């Protein structure tokens, strides 16, 4: 884990403003759905053009596999083939303009991103009470569940995971998308509410993930949330206790240090074979 530095820089297409959400025709993006989503930047109204409204004619819903604030994710079977998919069912009357804009951004992103390590979008439906986002059904579980089961990863195993994450995020960034929701500790710039943030926060998140894979514990911890946030803002962490890091090389620690820079402009990563 070292050499061949690749610096990620922020670009002006982060979807912070709903007016920045692109108009996407899925047929142009070479995916199965045939739709476009427009967001009116002044009213935040979402216009869904070409979406199907016959979800239940094509799919049979199965078991619940996840829940969110306004949505439930089910396994579903395509009646014509018997193939299983995952379906995110979003309750329409629970969404405000900002929620609709975020959904539009999610669908547009999935329609444009074609990568073996990114969830593939297959269909989209707009019915009277629900939106349905149909994607491939992934059964591998979550990385953090595997970390709990393994306690920590060997450096080689961690290197393989982190390389996959970095290559995938690099692809997203090259396409103009930031993930910004990698389910770990917030980057310092996110905690400063008046500070814009973009692609660099993904690198911070992967730095935290790398730290946790190699040590089995988070780089930032405090039972007091305020103190925890202060540590994150200051980048206050250490490679301790020492015996947790005895199997980890200097290059791996250097990689983590490069990604866990407090200032986004200083944040980068190194990749090598």
From TrEMBL:
Official protein name in the record: non-specific serine/threonine protein kinase
Enzyme class (EC, first level): transferase
InterPro entries registered for this protein in UniProt: Kinase-like_dom_sf, Prot_kinase_dom, Protein_kinase_ATP_BS
GO terms assigned for molecular function: ATP binding; metal ion binding; protein serine/threonine kinase activity
Residues that, per the record, bind ATP: 88
Boundaries of every Protein kinase domain copy: 59-273
Record key words, sorted: ATP-binding, Calcium, Kinase, Metal-binding, Nucleotide-binding, Repeat, Serine/threonine-protein kinase, Transferase
Pfam families: Pkinase (PF00069)
Keyword ATP-binding among UniProt keywords: yes
PROSITE patterns: PROTEIN_KINASE_ATP, PROTEIN_KINASE_DOM
Family of the protein in this entry: Belongs to the protein kinase superfamily. Ser/Thr protein kinase family. CDPK subfamily.
Cofactor entry: Mg(2+)
Organism field: Aphanomyces astaci (Crayfish plague agent)
Catalysed reactions, as listed in the record: L-seryl-[protein] + ATP = O-phospho-L-seryl-[protein] + ADP + H(+); L-threonyl-[protein] + ATP = O-phospho-L-threonyl-[protein] + ADP + H(+)
Coiled coil (UniProt feature): none
Record EC number: 2.7.11.1
